[in-house]
Write a structure and sequence with these properties.
It contains nine helices and two strands; from the N terminus they run αααααββαααα. With 189 residues, it is an all-alpha fold. The protein has one domain. The protein has a two-stranded antiparallel sheet. Helix 5 crosses helix 8 and helix 6 packs antiparallel against helix 7.
């Protein structure tokens, strides 16, 4: 059952992580500003995506993974790591790691609204509702896992994604859906 939940939760987590990583840790947001961000999710700066940006994200995967794989989960921002991330982003066509993060945020926002079975955009609320129904119908899932999954999904449902401002992003992400879903969700689709 985790195969159904993981891609959407991963996309949502990556969006929040990327926004938070770019906004509060890596790019030196002050501690005073970090406290209000904890009470409300960071807002994604929506931009119109280009095919070149999507291809850059896909080509940057190995470089970014090589850098981030070495980091502990609770790593503090390190200027050397930031420099490595900026260099990897520039190598793959981005002005900086911040721009790369913004593109990743926008991709994640769109991907969170794709039904993984049909590969069609239906909106993140519809995807979460489908996942809730799947978890509720799963008779093999352990009760504790089911309870946690439902709690996570209901929390996500209460915090809906903002509407997609650049409708062209949907078509562009759809064109690269399989590669992007693999990038964002790991080995599960």
């Amino acid at each position: 059952m985790r195969a159904f939940i993981r891609p959407a939760l991963t996309a949502l987590s990556i969006a929040c992580f990327a926004a938070g990583f770019a906004a509060d840790g890596v790019l030196a947001q002050s501690k005073q500003e970090a406290a209000p961000a904890a009470t409300q999710p960071p807002q994604i700066r929506q931009i119109p995506l280009t095919e070149k940006q999507i291809q850059g994200v896909l080509s940057a995967r190995n470089d970014m993974d090589a850098i981030t794989a070495k980091l502990p989960v609770d790593a503090k921002p390190d200027p050397k790591v930031i420099a490595q991330l900026d260099a990897a982003a520039r190598k793959n066509g981005f002005a900086s790691y911040d721009e790369y993060g913004t593109v990743m945020d926008n991709i994640s926002l769109v991907l969170s609204g794709f039904d993984p079975r049909t590969k069609k955009y239906v909106g993140s609320e519809a995807v979460i509702k489908q996942q809730i129904a799947q978890v509720q119908a799963d008779t093999k899932m352990p009760a504790a896992d089911k309870k946690q999954a439902l709690a996570d999904l209901n929390t996500a449902l209460k915090s809906p994604e903002p509407p997609i401002q650049n409708k062209g992003n949907i078509d562009l992400v759809a064109k690269y859906y399989d590669k992007l879903a693999e990038l964002m969700g790991g080995d599960e689709n």
